[in-house]
Design brief:
With 83 residues, this protein is of the alpha+beta class. The chain has 1 helix and 2 strands. It has a two-stranded antiparallel sheet with strand order 1-2. Strand 1 (62-66) and strand 2 form a beta hairpin. The protein is rod-shaped, with a radius of gyration of 34 Å.
């Protein structure tokens, strides 16, 4: 014959574990969502950094060596079509 006290303790422990499982499943879903958000933020930050670097490189004056010295290359001024 099975002791009713042992059966009751098993049932109580099973309920505790079911509750814990439910909490862990919820916590895992939250962790995964936050991790996905961080990955998206990282991709956006990388893309923005690349765009800023490209814009800075395009705006930076070009340099060349002339006679062993570094000189900035200055583009010819653009004239308006009406001039």
């Amino acid at each position: 014959m099975v002791d009713p006290e042992v059966t009751e303790r098993i049932a109580v422990r099973r309920v505790e574990l079911d509750d814990l499982e439910e909490q862990l499943v919820k916590q895992l879903a939250e962790v995964r969502a936050e991790r996905d958000d961080l990955a998206a933020a990282e991709r956006v930050l990388t893309r923005m950094s690349e765009q800023i670097a490209a814009a800075r490189a395009a705006a930076a004056p070009a340099a060349a060596q002339v006679g062993g010295k570094v000189m900035l290359l200055i583009p010819h001024p653009r004239r308006s079509p009406g001039l």
